[in-house]
Amino acid sequence: MTGEPKPTVGLFVTCLVDAIRPQIGFAALQLLEEAGCVVEVPQAQTCCGQPALNSGDDRDAAHLARQTIAAFEGYDHVVLPSGSCAATMVHGYPELLAGDPDWAARARAMAAKTHEITSFLHDVMGFMPRGRRCDASATYHDSCSGLRELGVAAQPRALLTQVEGLEMRGLPGNDACCGFGGTFCVKYSAISNAIVTEKAEAVESTGADILLAGDLGCLMNMAGKLHRRGAKTRCFHTVEVLAGRAQGPAIGEDAP
Amino acid sequence: MTARDRILSAIRATLGPGKPPERIAAEAAALLEDPDAARPRLAAPELPEAFALKAAALGTTIDCIATLAEVPRAMARYLDAHGLPPRFAMQPVPELAALDWQGLAPHPAVAADEPAALGLALYGIAESGSLVIHSGPQNPILLSFLPLHHVVLLREATLLPYLEDYAARLAAQAIPRNAILITGPSGTTDIEGSYVRGAHGPGFLHVILIAG
Amino acid sequence: MNAPFKAPFKAPFKARAAAALADPVLKTAIDRTTGNAERKRAAALAAFPEFEAARARGQAIKDHVIAHLGHYLEMFERNATARGAQVHWAGDDAEARAIVTRICLAADARLVTRAKSMLGEEIGLPHALADAGIERVETDLAEHIIQLAGEAPSHIIWPAMHRTREQVAELFKTGHQPPPAAEDPATMVQSARRVLREKFLSADIGISGANFLVADTGATCTVTNEGNAELTTTPPRIHIVTAGIEKLVPSTAHALALLRLLVRSATGGEMTQYTTFHAGPKRPGDADGPEEMHIVLVDNGRTKMLADEFREMLRCIRCGACMNHCVVYRQIGGHAYGGTYPGPMGSVLTPVLDGLAASRDLPNACTMNGRCAEVCPVGIPIPTLLRAWRRRSWREGLEPGPVRAGIGLWAQLARRPRLYRLATRIGLPALRLFGKGGWISRLPLAGGWTDHRDLPRPAARSFMDQYRAQQKARK
């Protein structure tokens, strides 16, 4: 980078990454820095509010929206390693705060600079990972919110082609929901189970070593089902492979 | 208050006083501008070929002849090929009655289990391979639905390119009681999605396309 | 507006869903039909690159009509009346049933044939006719099957899609005299053709729905692939149409533009086999046709939807694409939903028709994956509408106590970042105690998760703690 100041990025790691798999957060941090961003992780972040939003609890969701906007609106960009949390900020926040004269414009402004990480790296930063290697076959599941609400589809695939040794295999029904759905998977667990069982069967049918996706919620659901079924498929977030961090334990293999 | 008043006043309470009818009509017309942008291309540049391609894809069979006078022979060919008797129901129009039917025996009334019937299409639509019939004194609707084999005469000159072209023709004439677009033989996929022809209407649709 | 005939669906949603999930035959039947529908729709769209433009136009047509609904209703009434049809208005399902029954009784009708209409199901017409002592014969093949089975439709396009061919063969064996000679679909369809043909020609009244009500001609439009609508509406003395007030279109051309979307989205075809406009009764000199035509315009919650946040749902043209592409529908089928309309569109409509208290599970039992909105030919934002019901359910206190408590507790923590950090610092190591290796396979209070799948063991230290430590070390 010459002359031009580096863009600042506020990284929202998401509550699931924070608690379950911090490595995804560090992979995201690393990639953003490699792409030439100045990255900060605001301490005031907790959860984007999606569980409240999807449960109909708009009051709590709006409170979390305001809290998150206040913590992140100062950055050039807000980036998340999750399509569904990013979609909450991009679409949910402006909708939640539309009737709030003090916050509506701030919510829209924040929405305009919020990105899911692979689309940010690819579309905004024009970044391609270099010198990454992963000798394995992998299949990719399109997490629904990222795919349909943010148009995340080609970007992760384009970035993954840069990883040497990685053989990508198509996943039958790659754009069908895995049955996670946030609180859905526990509120209607029997239906969720039926859906994720079909997803696990599809993943196993590819014979791929690795399952990749861009949302830890979906990954936990699919990895948890694959493990319960005794499948050997290893599950990683896309950014872990892109950051060269897929050598270590996969989701559930060990808690790092 | 009648249900009508309740419904209309509930709508007015929500939507407010309406716009002038001319404005609404202009808006409605604007929604159909530039129809090419929102409809499929024809299957072929020439209307008869485009029509034939679409119709055939739906299982309609087509026989092309040069003039109306050849219809009896074409009909005989079809009945013969399907092992059907020479008796068939025919739409009671003078131009068909005037033809020389030779060994065939057309009759005007259509029976509940009529094996075959011959009728005349008012238009054909190339976009979809559809045939148009309108009800009227000389056009019993059941003639198109009761027989197992429905044979339809279609003149090339009556082929219209798109569905919109038919809508424009319809709007320009007295609206018949029934206007029907027939697009292929009767079919159903109600048992496990497997396609079966002849559910209630004709199991066979045959078009005799007349060039002249 | 609760229809009393919905008694068969007394079990709660989760119990109905569980029963459906435990039925492997049902799953086979669903997979065959929806899988086929999904593939055929995709092929039809691939052959129609202008589909997106057509969809935008379809949505605009519906929005235009909804914005001028009163104008178009009056225009339709005027033109239909001018063609000799009698137009009736019904505020709710009971009024609609009463109007139809009254017409039937006044005509001394003994046998009524009916061409499939979801609106008819919505207003409880089948049971109303039975209560009035009138024989009702369903003529759509699928409706014929479920009439023999004594069931309600499980899909709005393929009402009998929950039945395999073997099950249909069983029904026809006793329902057809003589029974079909073989169990293949073609032979069974022939048998139904023979049985129903007699009914078509001896019915006193034919009842149909309408896919479109054409305002500028006063015509109603039915679309079928079987040809049963015309055989239902032509021979009897009286034709009755029941239609929702949202079915209006300005003109025939608008109807045909929407039909392009409807057929491709419903079956993956390009055009229905029979697209018929019915404008009034038989004219003087007409070779055939009914002597009377009655059109019942039904509100049943639609003006309420117009007035509130569910207005966009009035765009729905009842294609069924949302259910064919819904992961939940594809697991539990239509009956588990318990309303007239199943699947995503049904989860928006059923709370309107049956009340939210009785149906709050439906808008909640959705993963919000957005596929329904993606395939909707008129751009209905179904997940947004489902979220609106969830919001209302939360506000009205209909959500179960444990859910409210859980979300509330979690929100209290999330709203206090320092407390949240502290909670993760204590909670994560505690949670890890339940794990073996990298996984937790049983966790108290989290059976919804661990009954079916393992839970990755959480990290010993949260990202935020690790990150802060790193930052300190750097300094």
TrEMBL record, chain A:
<feature type="domain" description="Cysteine-rich">
    <location>
        <begin position="139"/>
        <end position="222"/>
    </location>
</feature>
<feature type="domain" description="Cysteine-rich">
    <location>
        <begin position="9"/>
        <end position="89"/>
    </location>
</feature>
<dbReference type="Pfam" id="PF02754">
    <property type="entry name" value="CCG"/>
</dbReference>
<protein>
    <submittedName>
        <fullName>L-lactate dehydrogenase complex protein LldE</fullName>
    </submittedName>
</protein>
<dbReference type="InterPro" id="IPR004017">
    <property type="entry name" value="Cys_rich_dom"/>
</dbReference>
<dbReference type="GO" id="GO:0016491">
    <property type="term" value="F:oxidoreductase activity"/>
</dbReference>
<dbReference type="GO" id="GO:0005829">
    <property type="term" value="C:cytosol"/>
</dbReference>
Automatic annotation (TrEMBL), chain B:
<dbReference type="InterPro" id="IPR024185">
    <property type="entry name" value="FTHF_cligase-like_sf"/>
</dbReference>
<protein>
    <submittedName>
        <fullName>L-lactate dehydrogenase complex protein LldG</fullName>
    </submittedName>
</protein>
<dbReference type="Pfam" id="PF02589">
    <property type="entry name" value="LUD_dom"/>
</dbReference>
<feature type="domain" description="LUD">
    <location>
        <begin position="119"/>
        <end position="210"/>
    </location>
</feature>
<dbReference type="InterPro" id="IPR037171">
    <property type="entry name" value="NagB/RpiA_transferase-like"/>
</dbReference>
<dbReference type="InterPro" id="IPR003741">
    <property type="entry name" value="LUD_dom"/>
</dbReference>
Automatic annotation (TrEMBL), chain C:
<keyword id="KW-0813">Transport</keyword>
<dbReference type="InterPro" id="IPR003741">
    <property type="entry name" value="LUD_dom"/>
</dbReference>
<dbReference type="Pfam" id="PF02589">
    <property type="entry name" value="LUD_dom"/>
</dbReference>
<keyword id="KW-0411">Iron-sulfur</keyword>
<dbReference type="InterPro" id="IPR017896">
    <property type="entry name" value="4Fe4S_Fe-S-bd"/>
</dbReference>
<keyword id="KW-0408">Iron</keyword>
<keyword id="KW-0677">Repeat</keyword>
<keyword id="KW-0249">Electron transport</keyword>
<dbReference type="Pfam" id="PF11870">
    <property type="entry name" value="LutB_C"/>
</dbReference>
<dbReference type="GO" id="GO:0006089">
    <property type="term" value="P:lactate metabolic process"/>
</dbReference>
<feature type="domain" description="4Fe-4S ferredoxin-type">
    <location>
        <begin position="356"/>
        <end position="386"/>
    </location>
</feature>
<dbReference type="GO" id="GO:0051539">
    <property type="term" value="F:4 iron, 4 sulfur cluster binding"/>
</dbReference>
<keyword id="KW-0479">Metal-binding</keyword>
<protein>
    <submittedName>
        <fullName>L-lactate dehydrogenase complex protein LldF</fullName>
    </submittedName>
</protein>
<dbReference type="Pfam" id="PF13183">
    <property type="entry name" value="Fer4_8"/>
</dbReference>
